[in-house]
Amino acid sequence: MAEVALRSVSKSFGKVRAVEDISLEIGDGEFVVLLGPTGVGKTTTLRLVAGLEAPDRGSIEIDGRDVTKAPPAARDVAFVFQQYSLYPHLSVYDNLAFPLRSPLRAMAEEQIRARVHEIARLLRIEDKLANAATRLSGGQMQRVAIGRALVRKPAVFLMDEPLSSLDAKLRSELRLELKHIQQDLGATILYVTHDQIEAMTMANRIGVMQAGRLVQIGTPREIYETPASTYVATRLGNPAINLVPRSAFPDVAVPPGTVSLGARTENIRLTRANGGVGGRIRWIEHLGDQNHLHIEMGAHSLVTLVDPEAPLDVGTEVAVELVRPLCFDADGNRIRA
Amino acid sequence: MAEIRVQNLVKAFGDFLAVKDSSFTVADGAFFCLLGPSGCGKTTTLRIIAGLELPTSGHVYLDGEDVSFKRASERDIAMVFQLFALYPHMNVRRNIAYPLTNIGGMSRAQINAKVEEAARILRIGHLLDRPVGGLSGGDRQRVALGRAIVRHPKAFMMDEPLGALDSEFRHDMCEELRALHDRLKATTVYVTHDQLEAMRMADTIAVMNHGVIEQLGAPQQIYDRPATLFVADFIGQPSMNLLPFRGRLARGDRSVTLGAGSQAVPEVREDGVEGELVLGVRPEHVRLSDEGAIRGEVYGTEYLGTTQIVAVQTEGALVRARLPASRQTRLGERVGLTFMPDRISLFDKTSGRAIRTALHEGAGHG
Predict the structure, then answer these.
(1) Tell me: domain A4-233, CATH 3.30.565.10, correct?
(2) Residues of chain A positioned with their CB less than 8 A from the CB of B195
(3) Superfamily, domain B229-348
(4) Is the pLDDT of residue B364 over 60?
(5) Which residues of A are less than 8 Å from B299 in CB distance?
């Protein structure tokens, strides 16, 4: 297992600057997730590390070795794609064994068997080894696809939205499995997704991308609690962070230059009494485990989580108080208090 | 405005029963969701209401009138599909106006007024003279909705209209659709496999599985008091923890034996339940506690910002707890679990049915 380093890497396609001066180091055994909406350059970054694209500028190192010019096969990486691409005519066992039977790696069939069984056990598909690959559910097929990457023990795993074609329930199961296996194996993973839940729940560090650039990198907690900008702040959190003009809460003490305030559930205090800024409950969204409360405050509205047992109804007048909100300047950059 | 009543609806495709004897009423002005996994019969039900399929048996009433065998065009219902089929060679205005141009006797000025009104409701007035080609996914969806609302139909049928959008945007559109519904107050039947969409928008949800309505109720009711094991497992992210046990229950019981310990439960209100049973508890009703009788090892944690999900491997099953994000745990740490007694559901494993308890009395079965 090894570490990956990107040093000032850029890549354009014609006039489109897909990746713009990205520098990133991934430690041994670290799980790094690149997060951003479609078209932000995450997949291109991943393909650059894999060697499926060549950078225009900058260099890429894997395990201390400069691989910028090396072909994909010489990089010791395993790639897992969004769509599970299994060999339909092979059994699950043979699909898993396939990468080990490459003529480049002379491995005894006995060793292969041991390795395939070990991975199948980790992924809880040991009882499916004899099945045809196509006779599996979607979740099982994606497990096999991940397993095929895992059998090889490559220096680094590159994963491109491997869970996004699965339904919500399977996705939540596989998130936990993948994180568990990664910790078990001490695997180094670079993973891209637009799903904030995947990023928050699995990453050691999240790299937030915006228009080809890496705009912030940190632990999920750092990104959530101390975002560098309104863009980063709106990437994480459900309901999304509330952004309101500073003037909506004139009583809150803020550093000079503050133009807008960011408030999550943790920063919002609601009381029925007077004080704070007056608002009215416009709508309560029942999501089962928690409710989203939509509060109308003149021209602005806030969404916050409340306990389903809270005695609040549509139309209830509330006082809204902000507790240590995040402060942003005119460009949307956060001002540190 | 319309009330929709579906009575003993059955639909067979050859040997396959897509819908098995469904009955339900959608109140005038209600937002009604048919929710279930793919293949559960929800789209077939919708298409029968719209008149795009004929029922094998049973009836559909629109405002009291039996329309079971009337053509779709005679039902005054508007369909909105997942893939917004807009006419690419027409601009936004002409796309929205299209359904009105087929109706005779409407002047150009009248049509224009109706289009402007629909565009105003959907806040796309500024796009009316733009070609549909360059629009964002959301705006295209709004144009498709505009085409549905411009006719002022009695009811809307929506088949996964947000399915093609990415998740972040889908949530914004949910809010928009519900707000639109609140302004128009038109009866809406909405098909989706996405529980969050259903929870966010519906007044009433019908959870379907294998052609059967498993439960019919308000979102919070379905979440708090699932009528069957299927509903318990399908609704909730993460879903309800389901712990199998063997036992015998009698009216008045207030605890069950689970593993080594005894677990308090809502008072049982029926007799003669025994055999393979299941205890269901939502992750937010699980607490870590040294006193907990059920013990296990922390298998993984999932940070979610305000909260986190902690998965604990117990002897019987993996149990997930939703805890404040501030609670620290280590992988492999031995912990005890307690469940909030009054929020527990009990099920008969063989039939999948919820056992009547103080919590479950009055839960609607489909």
Answers:
(1) no
(2) 168
(3) Nucleic acid-binding proteins (2.40.50.140)
(4) no
(5) 176, 180
- Written as one string, the DSSP assignment of A266-305 is GGEEEESSS-SEEEEEEEEEE-SSSEEEEEEETTEEEEEE
Inter-chain touch B220–A290, beta carbons under 8 Å: no
Given the structure tokens 């670290």, which residue do they identify?
A30
Tokens at A67, concatenated: 């691989």
- Is the model more confident about A140 or about A274? A140
Question: Which positions ≥6 away from B207 have C-beta within 8 Å?
Answer: B35, B36, B213, B214, B215, B216, B222, B230, B231, B234, B235, B366
- Chain A interface with B: residues with Cβ < 8 Å: 37-38, 167-169, 172, 175-176, 179-180, 183, 194-195, 197, 200-202, 220-221, 224, 236-238, 264-266, 283, 285-290, 305, 308
List the single residue in B with minimal CA-CA distance to A201: B302
Domain boundaries, chain B: 4-224, 229-348
Q: So where are chain A's domains?
A: 4-233, 242-328
Locate B39 and state its tokens.
């293949």
Give A305's contacts in chain B (Cβ within 8 Å).
306
More confident residue, B332 or A275: B332
Does B55 score more than 90 pLDDT?
yes
CB-closest option in B237, B284, B322 to A172 = B237
Using a CB–CB cutoff of 8 Å, tell me whether B326 touches chain A: no
Architecture of domain A242-328: Beta Barrel (2.40)
Band (pLDDT 50/70/90 cuts) for residue B170 is confident
Calculate how close chain B gets to A8, using CA atoms only, in Å.
30
User: A167-222: per-residue pLDDT in tens?
Assistant: 777 788 889 889 988 998 899 999 999 899 999 999 999 999 999 999 999 999 99
Looking at 3.40.1190.20, 3.30.1360.120, 3.30.420.40, 3.40.50.300, the CATH number of the domain B4-224 comes to 3.40.50.300
The neighbouring-strand residues paired with A80 are A159
Which residue in chain B is spatially nearest to A195 when comparing CA positions?
B167
